[in-house]
């Protein structure tokens, strides 16, 4: 009975991942990871003897212990990958903020040389008539 629920769960994960891919809510590189996980769960659900054989091969006493160990390794890998991605995004955000600051400074230094009728860098309308 537990194998049946594993198959249903794997098919559910595959369906959700495909739906998220089609609606552009999940990027392909993350979808590949989740599809591999879902396929592994599906294979273990269809062939539960594989888990028993792997348990004996690795010398683990209880198949559930092997599943928990593999799940822990998987979660550590996902957390490490997401931490790496976050670091990349932070570096890119910092670089873009610096670039915007440089461009803003260049714009503000060029703005006084422009036509006095154009709006200034702060959006205020400049006066075209002499004040006196």
UniProtKB/TrEMBL annotation:
The keyword Lipid biosynthesis does not apply. Keywords: Membrane, Transmembrane, Transmembrane helix. Residues 107-132 are annotated as: Disordered. The chain crosses the membrane at residues 6-23, 30-54, 66-84. InterPro entries: DUF2304. The keyword Transmembrane applies. Residues 123-132 have a biased composition (Basic and acidic residues). Signal peptide: none annotated. This is DUF2304 domain-containing protein. The lineage of its organism: Bacteria, Bacillati, Actinomycetota, Actinomycetes, Micrococcales.
């Amino acid at each position: 009975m537990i194998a049946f629920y594993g198959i249903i769960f794997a098919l559910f994960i595959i369906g959700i991942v495909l739906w998220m891919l089609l609606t552009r809510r999940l990027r392909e590189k993350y979808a590949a990871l989740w599809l591999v996980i879902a396929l592994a769960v599906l294979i273990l659900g269809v062939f539960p003897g594989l888990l028993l054989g792997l348990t004996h091969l690795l010398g683990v006493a209880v198949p559930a212990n092997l599943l928990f160990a593999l799940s822990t390794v998987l979660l550590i890998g996902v957390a490490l990958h997401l931490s790496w991605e976050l670091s990349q995004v932070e570096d890119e955000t910092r670089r873009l903020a610096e670039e915007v600051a440089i461009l803003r400074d260049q714009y503000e230094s060029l703005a006084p040389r422009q036509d006095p009728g154009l709006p200034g860098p702060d959006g205020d309308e400049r006066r075209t008539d002499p004040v006196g």
